[in-house]
Amino acid sequence: MEQYTTKSGKPLKMKVKFVDHEKELVKASEALPLPLYFTNAVFFTLFFSVVYFLLTSWREKIRTNTPLHVIELSEIVAIIAFVASFIYLLGFFGMDFVQSLILQPSNDIWAADDDEDIILKEDARKVPCGQALDCSITKMAPIASPKAAPKVVPKVFEEKAMMETPPPTEEDEEIIKAVVAGTIASYSLETKLGDCKRAASIRREALQRVTGKSLEGLPLEGFDYESILGQCCEMPVGYITIPVGIAGPLMLDGREFSVPMATTEGCLVASTNRGCKAINLSGGASSVLLKDGMTRAPVVRFNSAKRAAELKFFMEDPENYETISMVFNKSSRFGRLQTVKCAVAGKNLYMRFTCSTGDAMGMNMVSKGVQNVLDFLQNDFPDMDVIGISGNYCSDKKPAAVNWIEGRGKSVVCEAVIKGDIVTKVLKTNVAALVELNMLKNLTGSAIAGALGGFNAHASNIVSAVYLATGQDPAQNIESSHCITMMEAINDGKDLHVSVTMPSIEVGTVGGGTQLASQSACLNLLGVKGANREAPGTNARQLASVVAGSVLAGELSLMSAIAAGQLVKSHMKYNRSNKDVTTVTSA
Question: What distances in angstroms separate CA 436 from CA 200, 260, 443, one per listed residue?
Answer without folding.
Answer: 54, 31, 10
